[in-house]
Design brief:
This protein has 316 residues and is of the alpha+beta class. The protein has helices at residues 20-25, 56-67, 99-102, 108-126, 154-157, 163-176, 183-196, 273-281, 293-296, 303-315; strands at residues 8-9, 29-33, 36-41, 45-50, 75-81, 86-92, 97-98, 202-205, 214-219, 255-260, 267-270. A 6-stranded antiparallel sheet has the order 1-5-6-4-3-2, with helices on one face. A 3-stranded antiparallel sheet has the order 7-9-10. Strand 5 and strand 6 (86-92) form a beta hairpin. It is globular and about 55 Å long.
Length: 316
């Protein structure tokens, strides 16, 4: 996918795009913090905008919609207001509830149905051909905050040609912008990470695997949405039974459409990254969600503890 010419406007916009004034005036606010705001405008649009919004999130969404059958919101427009330096991502308003809010009320069978759909979606995402580097689309720096620096620093920001360079970037970041971290711990990472983080291919990764980023809506079982995320019947496929908590099976009750949102950190990361992020996001293990991770993602049990330690030290 080449660099997207901006501004971008989709050919299938359902109604006139909202103006900046209409976007700013919206009282239907999902989030508003640190130069990032997400609002609903009318019945068709959700707009993510602000000086700290990166247009590449919209590019990621267009890429995933073009190359997979995964349910994600349509992107209707991408642009920058030069007078305010705010970036705008105008996307489809997706009806439903977050899986975070719906999870406590789900039956075991309903959980299994949704988990199978998520497995199919992320299996498809992970099958995208590797570009041969670790980084964003079109060989740009990685977007995870682990690799962020206030000033441009390619040795930490990426992109990286191999996993050794990515490991070194994380060791460098440990002491790069703070006097609170000691070089001794960074040296430990230089000793250990090549032994643990090795042999992982660049894999397209959502990089924020949390229930709050999955929108769930009950649909008719006749809607043709079984076999996971597929929109086009020609691409449906059977579900293979797994050995985790849930073997795939056709549900006997409610059917669900599961839409994946929030692609702002998506990149080509090492193959363990999605599981590592998901494991960290479980938090205090207040419910059974964490036990189902192995049924949706390939588990990386050896890498996860090191990833969690790194993430808490480099990102928190």
């Amino acid at each position: 996918m080449g660099l997207l010419p901006l501004p971008f406007t989709s050919a299938d916009v359902p109604s006139p795009l909202p103006t900046n004034a209409q976007i700013e005036a919206s009282k239907d606010v999902f989030t508003d913090f640190s130069g990032r705001k997400v609002v609903r405008v009318g019945k068709h649009f959700v707009v993510k905008y602000g000086i700290n919004i990166d247009i590449i999130e919209g590019e990621n969404m267009l890429f995933v919609r073009k190359t997979t059958t995964i349910f994600i919101p349509k992107v209707y427009a991408l642009y920058t207001d030069s007078s305010t330096r705010k970036n705008y991502i105008v996307m489809e308003n997706v009806e439903g509830e977050t899986l975070a809010s719906k999870w406590p009320s789900l039956t075991e069978s309903q959980k299994g149905t949704i988990i199978t759909k998520l497995k199919l979606s992320f299996d498809e995402l992970r099958q995208l051909p590797s570009p041969g580097y670790f980084g964003s689309l079109d060989k740009r720096p990685l977007l995870d905050d682990i690799f962020h620096t206030r000033e441009k620093t390619p040795s930490i920001n990426g992109p990286f040609q191999n996993e050794d360079a990515l490991n070194e970037a994380m060791a460098q970041k440990y002491t790069f912008e703070t006097i609170c971290q000691t070089s001794h711990k960074a040296d430990l990472y230089r000793q250990a990470l090549p032994q643990v983080f090795c042999g992982h291919a660049p894999t397209f990764t959502h990089a924020d695997f949390q229930r709050k980023n999955f929108i769930v809506r009950v649909v008719s079982s006749e809607a043709g949405l079984w076999n996971g995320c597929q929109r086009r019947k020609s691409k449906t496929r059977d579900v293979s039974a797994g050995d985790g908590l849930w073997a795939a099976k056709r549900p006997a009750e409610d059917e669900f459409k599961v839409t994946i949102i929030d692609w702002e950190k998506a990149d080509w990361y090492p193959s363990y990254w999605e599981y590592g992020v998901a494991h960290c996001a479980v938090g205090r293990w207040d419910d059974d969600w964490g036990l189902f991770l192995r049924d949706m993602l390939t588990p990386y049990y050896a890498e996860a503890p090191w990833f969690q330690m790194l993430r808490f030290e480099l990102w928190s």
